[in-house]
High-potential iron-sulfur protein (Cyclobacterium plantarum), 107 residues
Amino acid sequence: MQRRNFVKYLLGSLTLILSNCASPKKEYQLEQVTDCADLTGLSEDELEKRKSLGYEEETPVSDNRCDNCQLYLPPTEKRKCGGCQLFKGPVKAGAYCTYWAPRVNNA
């Protein structure tokens, strides 16, 4: 009887593994975003992370903006929207979060 249960367990586990391999979750890609205000592709965890880091779309501190933060990823030819090294999703240049760090100018 134990062997039968073990075989059932193995088959169930194998089915679960194969179903996860057959339909992998799509990874969020900032390069594919066309509307920098659109957050629909982000998971609930990523949305919560943005919130927990105090991300605000408009800075309450005029000198502390995302575009002068060390962690900011500016838009590029491949990426229409700015981003952040701490969380996924588009980031506005004039936004702010509590982890703002001044950009270091390497002269």
Summary: The chain is about 30% helix and 5% strand. The chain has a mean pLDDT of 84. The two ends are 74 Å apart (CA to CA).
